[in-house]
Amino acid sequence: MTLSVTLRHSFSGFDLDVSFQAPAGVTVLFGGSGSGKTTIINAVAGLLRPQSGRVSIDDWELFDIEQGRWLPPHRRRLGYVFQEGRLFPHLTVSQNLAYGRWFAPRNAKRENSSRIVEMLGIGHILKRYPATLSGGEKQRVAIGRALLADPKLILADEPLAALDETRKAEILPYFERLRDEVSVPILYVSHAASEVARLATTVVAIQDGRVSGHGPAAEILGDPMITPLGARAAGAMLEATVVAHHPDGLSELDAGGAVLLLPRVQQSLGKNIRVRIAAQDVILSRDPPEGLSALNVLPGTISMIRSGDGPGAIVSVDTQAGRLLARITQRSVRALGLSNGVRCHAIIKTVAVAPEGVG
Amino acid sequence: MDWLSPQEWSAVALSLRVSFWATLCSLPLAVFVAHLLARREFLGKQLLNGIVHLPLILPPVVTGYLLLLTFGTRGPIGGLLERVGIVFAFRWEGAALAAGIMAFPLMVRAIRLSIEAVDPKLEQASATLGASRFWVFATVTLPLILPGVIAGAILAFAKAMGEFGATITFVANIPGQTQTLPTAIYAFLQVPGAESSAIRLVVISVVVAMSALLVSEVIAKRLALRIAGR
After folding, report:
1. Residues 6 or more apart from A51 whose CB is under 8 A from it?
2. Residue A80 with chain B: CB contacts under 8 Å
3. Which of A13, A121, A171, B125 is deepest in the core (most CB within 10 A)?
4. ipTM (interface pTM)
5. List of residues 6+ apart from B71 with CB closer than 8 A
6. Any chain B CB within 8 A of the CB of A44?
């Protein structure tokens, strides 16, 4: 199933004009605050009526301005996970979970509720009221409630933004499982680069109400021209397999044949994981470095250089492991004679890889 | 019931009956109007708001007279209703109508405040899960405003118990038929030597009003705890 969205909407000096497709898997609307992401997701949900455009899932039209078609939210078969959970305070956890099912069509495919309760690890809190739950528990119940409504489309508006790092690490794997196990498209709004790197199948980068980039996650995150959060937050995403856990606290990963050493990862051997490498943690060298403490040195070829307005530049390097971004100064670009097609070595400090960017 | 004369007793009983029906019949309408005022935007919203509040700001005797003009047997609505056998003027049903209308703004205000306190985001969440407007209201809004609805109803009941001006104007003060607690107190005070009757009814008024207040507090608190999820 594929969600197609074309929207135009103007309000209080802000113009939204976007068009994109979200195939099965997680499509992340990635952008800073005020870029228009939440407006888009609310228009898809029917909570906001855009001035013009079209929204459809395959050939089922939710909204089409030309045909005057507008489905109210309750007929769109959604599972919406909100930032603040929005559990019903007067209902127990199990009543909250069952809520969407009351309204699902009789012939709907019934998700097995005990399977979902088990997957989310909420079996022990079914009789409790939302007020007594922790933030992480609330969000897991909210995910379960959305899934059990038997949705044709799952929406998530920064579902982790209100949680601390520990809770985020607790919830992210559930979304990864959703991505891998559920066949309906998931539209996920985020401004956190690490979440995007971990979850996204497809990335739609949103800047100032426009789509500035749209494509597979590795491609968009590795494009130096698309930095919806600014150059500081740029970073590429590598896919790798866990090969070994070394006794000195490091894990060895295989990324397209290249060896990557990271601080010990949680995943077991043989697992495929994603690793986000921030552009500012990558150093470039023309010659193979010697006598250097950094453990990861990946030879590659420069594919693009983007000079910023300030002293910095973002350089994309195609390596065996995948495309990396490096944020260096324009002075270094000149001093090293870097340009498209030049071979160089990307150096990644092992300890710089943030644990929330691995999974 | 030796301690109350038949006339006193019938006034108490009638007042309770009038207030009960006035509250019960106006409650659904009050919830509906409060929901309109709190959650919808429409042409004439301010007009509706003004009409609802009119009985609160008009002199009660004016409201009673307007009721007599419209619901009296010669009034436009009263005349029509008489043909199908419904008569309000100078009947206890008329007292209930007057009390209901006088208490209506209080009820709407209490319920409207509690609807406005419900987070619209919860109602949105309910809609995204497949609930139509009616079901959003029935399964989310209504349970959450229940303390406010009960507070509003009890406030209205107490107001109906004490309603005087509109009642005496619309249905007069006929012992055993339209004489409610306040109109009976007024009548007793006009008669030399009947002060003890008046005082007994005053005590009953105070007791009924106070217990209504206490009961509403207790219920509202319990419900609020339930909603907060303990």
Report:
1. A8, A9, A10, A65
2. 125, 128-129
3. B125
4. 0.82
5. B77, B78, B81, B88, B89, B94, B97, B170
6. no
With CA atoms as reference, the chain A residue closest to B121 would be: A86
Domain ranges of chain A: 3-221, 235-357
Strand ranges of the sheet holding A250-255, from the earlier edge strand across to the other edge? A258-263, A250-255, A235-245, A272-278
Q: What is the pLDDT of residues A186-239, one digit of tens each?
A: 999 998 888 888 889 999 999 989 999 899 888 888 888 888 887 777 888 888
Burial of B52 (0-12, 13-18, 19+ CB in 10 A): buried
Answer yes or no: are the C-beta atoms of A94 and A114 closer than 8 Å: no
Per-residue pLDDT band at A6 (split at 50, 70, 90) = very high
Look-up of token digits 């579902």 = A159
Distance from CA of A102 to the nearest CA of B (A): 8
Residue A236 pairs with which residues in a beta bridge?
Answer: A277
A61-70, A88-97, A112-121: the lowest-pLDDT one? A112-121
**Chain B residue numbers touching A78 (CB-CB < 8 A):** 128-129
> Across the interface, do A88 and B226 touch by the CB < 8 Å criterion?
no
Neighbours of A322 (CB within 10 A): 23
Phi and psi of A158, rounded to 5°? 45, 60
Handedness of CA B97, B98, B104, B107 (dihedral sign): negative
* Distances from the Cα of A58 to the Cα of A22, A41, A146, A279, B124, angstroms: 10, 17, 21, 37, 25
- For A88, name the nearest residue in chain B, comparing CA atoms only: B122
Specify the 3-state DSSP secondary structure of A188: strand
Task: Report CB contact under 8 Å: A89, B128.
Answer: no
* Vertex A250: Cα angle to A249 and A256 (nearest 5): 165
Look up residue B102 and give its two tokens: 């006088």
**Domain residue spans of chain B:** 6-228
Mean pLDDT of chain A: 88
User: Under CATH, which number does the domain B6-228 receive?
Assistant: 1.10.3720.10
Residue A272 reports pLDDT greater than 90 = no
How many whole angstroms separate alpha carbon A2 and alpha carbon A161? 26
If residue A243 lies in a helix (H) or strand (E), which one and from where to where? strand A235-245
Distance CA A236, CA A311 (A): 21
What CATH fold (topology level) applies to the domain A3-221?
Answer: Rossmann fold (3.40.50)
Contact list in B for residue A130 (CB cut-off 8 A) is 229
Q: Is domain A235-357 annotated with CATH 3.40.718.10?
A: no
> What is the Cα–Cα distance from B74 to B60, expressed in whole angstroms?
21
Contact B127 A99 (CB under 8 A): no
Residue A153: band (very low, low, confident or very high) from pLDDT cuts 50, 70, 90: very high
Among B212, B34, B19, B201, residue whose Cα is nearest residue B115: B34
If you search the block for the tokens 């899932």, which residue do you land on? A57
- Rounded to whole angstroms, the Cα distance separating A204 from A214 reads 4
Residue A111, pLDDT > 80, answer: no
Question: From the CB of residue B12, how many other CB atoms can be counted at a distance below 10 Å?
Answer: 20
| Residues in chain B closer than 8 A to A155 (CB atoms) | 128
**In terms of CA atoms, which chain B residue is nearest residue A84?**
B121
Residue whose tokens read 């050493």: A261
pLDDT score at A53:
93
